[in-house]
Amino acid sequence: MTATLHKPSKVEMVNKATEIRLLAEKQMGEFLAASPKNEGGR
Fold first, then answer.
1. DSSP for 1-42?
2. Phi then psi for 3, rounded to 5 degrees?
3. In this predicted model, what pLDDT tens digit does every residue of 1-42 receive, in sequence order?
4. Vertex 37, ends 35 and 40: CA angle to 5°?
């Protein structure tokens, strides 16, 4: 029995990359919102 692998199309690859980028941006926003702010020196 041979297993055939699904080769993703270019559109599928771009969609997955976009999904990963959006998730990373959301996580970074949550991280920055939770981090302490610098009050400044003036």
1. --PPPP---HHHHHHHHHHHHHHHHHHHHHHHHHSPPP----
2. -95, 130
3. 567 788 989 999 999 999 999 999 999 999 999 998 888 776
4. 160
- In angstroms, rounded to a whole number, what is the distance separating the alpha carbons of residues 33 and 4? 45
* Residue 33 to residue 36: CA distance in whole angstroms: 8
Six token digits for residue 35: 């981090």
Residue count (the chain): 42
pTM (two decimals): 0.67
